[in-house]
Specification:
Oligomer: single chain
Distance between the termini: 11 Å
Order of helices and strands: HEEEEEEHHHEEEEEHEEH
Largest sheet: 7 strands, antiparallel
Strand order of the largest sheet: 10-9-8-7-13-12-11
Amino acid sequence: MTSDENPKRPAGQTSWRATTLPIGIGTAALLAGALLMLGPVRSADAAARDFAAAQACAPGPAPSAQAQCRSSVPATVERYWKTGARSTAGHIEVVRHGDGQRQILDLERDFRLRAPASGDEVRLVGWRGEVRYVTYGPGYGRTVFTEANPYTAYAVPFGWGAFLLFFGAILVWIGSWQRWLSHLSRRAAPWQVMVPTVMLALLAAGAPALALAGGVRIEEALSVSGTGVGLAVLVIGAVWLYKALRGESDTVAVEPRRDDREHVFTAHVLGDDTGFGPGPYLVVAPGVLAFSVDPTGAYRRAPLPSGLVLEQVRPVFASDPGAMDLYGRHEPAYLVAQCRDGEREVLIAVARKNMPWLVGALPQADPAAAPDRA
């Protein structure tokens, strides 16, 4: 069967591994992400709002661990030190005034200004039984939060939740396309799959990174993530409009290139490779067009059939034999040189950047001599 006989893929004629499996895993990821957002993230957001609204505790005995007010306890720094690969995590050991209790506090970030020295006076501001931040310096005007910062407690569950939501959306969309929509395009990697996947992958990486490494509050994380989603929708819409107005041709214009040097690059014959020597390296040079097992192309060359002519250059089609294997090779994007050797169709896939050299080495087919494929 030639590439022109079945221009569209029949709907639903795809392996369950490409349809049911990603849809199932993606749905599970979406549910897990939603549970994280509705559970731990929502609770952390409520706690941050309560902390922001909390007032200073009234003078008197120390408040209980359930108290909603902010306590302030004076203390003296015994020592300050850093840990971590880059010495970015700060810690202080303090002695509380009054009861003389010693306490080690892990700080959320390193001090931006002067680090406290032994003997410095600080204030430990607590809420719900934990020290949330420390004030120090002249007039206690400098503040550093501890790892019990209520404003960033949302970050870990939010990061996981956002990742699972966007990752799940990728899998559900890919599986749904393969199951119900793949008949709309003959390409192995159509833009309808690639563009949404790339945008969702950027969101899946960016939203957690913003929350975990950006040090922002949940309102900012939600705002920026929402803006990212909006931009992704605009990009997808713009690509769809561009494709709708421009159309999508199955022929790729490639300007042939020729010179006096020898070029060796990877190439794959899709389907029947009878008459082609072992590869996968294609040697292109003046008067030379051959496969070789040598990455330098220096020996064991097997010339391509002398009657091979180029009909067109096109994208990889899903119906091409071994099309999906190309995308598991971790190599650049491929184009296919659709050729003819007598009555036989020959498909040679090479990286887009190398296609001009192959086009320059192949004679062009005479359209009038093409066999009837009706």
